[in-house]
Amino acid sequence: MTAYSLKYAKDHLERIAEETVENSAETIITLDSGQAVVMIPLEQYESWKETQFLLSNPANRAHLLESAQQYRAGQATRRTLIDPERTSP
To answer: Which family does it belong to (predicted)?
Structure first.
């Protein structure tokens, strides 16, 4: 994770944004007030939002956590997905 002052970020915004996307890493911009904001790639933000959505429902959260626990315990079964467009009736 990299941090920049607001003044530096104003002068180099495009380069900082490109590096943030290229490195898939967060970039901190510190404001003159001492507060800070974080710049992240859109893909990463969308992934976090999807995770937050999936875990926001208690029943879905419990199911996902149970599935992850089963996987770690070696209780997962590998399956081959069938593409319905490639199979004939």
So the answer is: Belongs to the phD/YefM antitoxin family.
1-44 pLDDT tens trace: 899 999 999 999 999 999 999 999 999 999 999 999 999 999 99
Whether the CB-CB separation of 20 and 41 falls below 8 Å is answered with yes
CATH superfamily for 2-40 is YefM-like domain (3.40.1620.10)
> Distance between CA 17 and CA 63 in Å, rounded?
37
What phi, psi does 4 have (nearest 5°)? -135, 155
Q: pLDDT at position 83, please? A: 81
Closest C-alpha among 17, 45, 44 to residue 29: 17
pTM here is: 0.66
